Amino acid sequence: SMGGSELKELLFDRLRRFGATLEGRDLELFRERVIADEPLTLQDFGERWGVSRERARQVEKRLVLKLRAYLQQELGD
Fold it and tell me: In the chain, which ranges are continuous DSSP H helix?
């Protein structure tokens, strides 16, 4: 069975690959919120994009679902 560090490395690799498939707002959210050490808030993104916080949340939700589907496909449950 895999050790914790191997699993972490595998996950990091898959996250990096997933990030490479993104562009625009999805990529910004991924880099600066999903994997950031000090994530920005949805309010921050809303202000940056000139949309409501709720709209930013919807974009994030879609991205998270996309990420989950990608990881399930790559790693199984």
Answer: 4-20, 24-29, 42-49, 53-75
> For the packed helices 53-75 and 4-20, what is the interaxial angle rounded to 10 degrees?
120
Q: Is the distance from CB of 75 to CB of 68 less than 8 angstroms?
A: no
Cβ atoms 46, 56 nearer than 8 A: yes
Find the mean pLDDT for residues 31-58. 96
pTM metric for this prediction: 0.84
**Distance, CA of 29 to CA of 42 (rounded, Å):** 9
- CA–CA distance, 29 with 4 (Å, rounded to integer): 27
